[in-house]
TrEMBL record:
<protein>
    <recommendedName>
        <fullName>Actin</fullName>
    </recommendedName>
</protein>
<dbReference type="InterPro" id="IPR004000">
    <property type="entry name" value="Actin"/>
</dbReference>
<dbReference type="Pfam" id="PF00022">
    <property type="entry name" value="Actin"/>
</dbReference>
<dbReference type="InterPro" id="IPR043129">
    <property type="entry name" value="ATPase_NBD"/>
</dbReference>
<comment type="similarity">
    <text>Belongs to the actin family.</text>
</comment>
């Protein structure tokens, strides 16, 4: 066990945003979009040493940029771009890379080669003194103060269900579905295009995401597409160019695919059934306890009506002898980051962090045996 004088830097890299900050803070001190931009027409932007835009600078110039999303479905697809984003984190927080250890969150079923590449960047490029790669599900549970429960995390790229007992994830019951916020945005775009609106550029897609977050909601019950659709209260969204987009049933139809993906011809369970399947794959004597401790996290779960629909669906479909209880904390969009902050103050962190010396001695093979 190695002790570090400075608190670790926590980086939670998602498909939509990167949250970062020093352990001990109440919330992440930095949240940036996890996209990288290049100028569509370089002569229209101020000359600079790099043609790559990240962080707040990318947000400010978004309409003039072609955007790339280097993290897709929770998995890094472009390491050069992700390294630029991580460099920006250190710069924006005024930190030197070798000053403190780092905690990096990772999705379920993260391939070992991705763990190896992450370690290579942080140890060999950034020269960090120590690093911990930790499951997003376990970190999120740390934020609740509990050691047993089921984490349902629905973010931008993936939906993950992680049952945990006494601090250890139940590997055979972890489930993941590549259907999440990104897919709701894409479905909303299809619905709007059917109404005659053109949405094609990466900037327009970001605007569609904003429409989804501000105007859409989850229907309280399954929608019968064979019956006349309930009329949603009309809303509108004003685009930056002054266009006004009226919204009606699109407001709840966009989110419905998360609960009934068969509507799109997808052979996937809905999110409620996904959780039930996960719990039913645990030992029979654990199930009642797990059903009573469901913790909901992730940005997509912030949609109005999400918790009500999820709880109602699970109660209807779960075994009749269980009592279903669900927690939707106000800070659930930051649950993973906050859990990492809690972890850093425990002896578990000191015992689990990989030191530079150990990495240099054992190399990448350490990630095939490291338990956390």
């Amino acid at each position: 066990m190695e002790k570090h004088k400075k608190p670790p830097l926590i980086i939670d890299s998602g498909s939509s945003t990167i949250k970062a900050g020093l352990a001990g803070d109440k919330i992440p001190s930095l949240t940036i979009p996890s996209f990288v931009g290049r100028a569509k027409f370089p002569h229209t932007l101020k000359k600079r040493t790099s043609d790559t835009y990240v962080g707040f600078e990318a947000e400010r110039n978004i309409s003039q940029l072609k955007l790339r999303y280097p993290i897709s479905r929770g998995k890094v697809e472009n390491w050069a771009d992700v390294e630029e984003l991580w460099k920006y984190v250190y710069s924006a927080l005024s930190l030197t890379t070798n000053a403190q250890p780092v905690i990096i969150s990772e999705t379920s079923f993260n391939p070992c080669e991705n763990r190896e590449k992450t370690a290579e960047i942080f140890f060999e490029t950034f020269n960090v003194p120590g690093m911990l790669l930790a499951s997003q599900g376990i970190l999120s549970l740390y934020s609740t103060g509990s050691t047993t429960g089921v984490i349902l995390d629905c973010g931008e790229g993936t939906t993950q269900i992680t049952p945990i007992y006494e601090g250890f994830s139940i590997a055979q019951a972890i489930t993941r579905m590549d259907l999440a916020g990104k897919d709701l945005t894409e479905h909303l775009i299809r619905l709007l295009m059917r109404s005659g609106y053109s949405i094609s550029s990466s900037h327009d897609i970001e605007l569609a995401r904003t429409i989804k977050e501000q105007k859409c909601y989850v229907s309280p019950a399954k929608i019968d597409m064979n019956s006349p659709l309930e009329k949603a209260l009309p809303e509108s969204f004003t685009m930056p160019d002054g266009r006004i987009i009226p919204l009606a049933n699109e407001r709840y139809l966009a989110a419905e695919i998360l609960f009934t993906p068969d509507r799109l011809g997808l052979e996937l369970p809905g999110i409620s059934q996904l959780l039930i399947n996960s719990v039913q794959n645990t030992a029979i004597d654990l199930r009642k306890n797990l059903y009573s401790k469901i913790y909901v996290t992730g940005g997509t779960t912030l949609m109005t009506g999400f918790g009500q629909r999820l709880l109602g669906d699970i109660k209807k479909a779960s075994p009749k002898d269980v009592k279903v209880k669900m927690v939707l904390a106000n800070n659930r969009i930051n649950a993973c980051w906050l859990g990492a902050s809690v972890l850093s103050s425990t002896s578990e962190f000191g015992n689990s962090v990989i030191s530079r010396r150990r990495y240099e001695e054992e190399g990448n093979r350490i990630f095939y045996t490291w338990p956390f």
